[in-house]
Amino acid sequence: MMLISKVRRTIEKYSMLEQGDKVVVGVSGGPDSVFLLHTLKELREDFNLTLIVAHLDHCIRGVESKMECRFVEDMANRLHLPFEAKSVDVPALKKSEGASTQQAARDARYEFFMDTLKKFNAQKVALGHNADDQAETVLMRLIRGAGNKGLCGIPPIRDGIFIRPLIETRRSEIEGFLRENRIESVIDSSNRENVYLRNKVRNNLMPILMKEYNPGIVQNLIHTSEILRKEDEFLEKLVLELFPRICVSRGKGSLTLNILYLKDLEGAMQVRVLRKAVESFSGDLKRISFKHLESVMKMLSGEGANKSLNLPRGIIVEKRYTELIIRREIKETLFYYSFSEIPHCVRLKEIGKEVDFKVIPQKKHLNLNVDPNVAFMDYGQIKFPIVMRNFREGDRFQPMGMEGTKKLKDFFIDNKIPKSIRREIPLLLFDNLIAWVMGIRIDNRVMVRECPAEILQVRIF
User: Which pTM was predicted?
Assistant: First the structure.
């Protein structure tokens, strides 16, 4: 029972549980998760816990996976605990999402755990990661070239939901407890196959490091991760204080940072703010590595006012003069509407806009500059067909106030309109004449002069 007391100290140290919590316990059937379940059952009365056993079959190892599911179900029944199971075809998921087997399996597990949490109205999900898993994770990330945050390793508690009560308990202690108490578990045969990096680190590298270099390597790696985690927590508090000033706007489809404020920060803090921005925009940092953030930093410090960078999962980072925009990849949608007479109202469904037309008599005190989304044009200059379409290469118009025509591309550049949104700006044409770059500028040749009998009012909204 000394080992259970040790786990309890970890739970209290990180405030993992509260009185009356409902806890979903992820149980694969392996030694760690079996020990976790028995430990939480022993501590159930102390914390007034309700336990739910959850098992996911990844459909990777055929009959062996089915047997493990039955093993966990039988154990839950013997302990008189509710059991929730699901099968997910991880190989198919891997193929459809273009992810690694491990990433696809991890995504499937966490989705299953969250679904189970909601189904049972639970507060926590307990996972069986142990101290050796922590050391292996730190070593793996070091090998892969992770930054400071990655070397913090596995967090003892994440999002206030996922808890790891065994994070300070060694694998050898867990296996010894199960032997002494004659508690059965199953061994995943794939753990012996040196196909994945974790297995290579666990089965090959770690034993060499312990034997030839430092018998205390596991504890040293864990200690390093704890130091880095404390520093990371302090720096994250600073980022949370800075972020509202640097993040100038946040919408459904994008997030905008002020580049000038961002550049005022020291380099390491810039990376942290960028990481926070990507996480805030996308909801997580899946497949976003330190190298991706470094690439964004290089783009920030490089020359050129308009640059863009593609990150995994369809995330685009754009440098637009003094702004850094994080958005989703947008599939370009072309549109073309033609009318032989003046329409009443037109819905541009491709860009989610509507345009209405109204012919009004001339007024002596008509304010022609009331709203950039409303244009007033000389009715006598209208030629049919009236067309609304996207920008095309080679388009020219005569901006109001100019003598000659200008390439629309140059007009966009002069007005700092990013390349990525130029084709989303609708154009209003009278026959082949671009009468209005909608929401921005009308053509000099259709502007209201002197006192025409009638005026065409066009509004986009």
Answer: 0.69
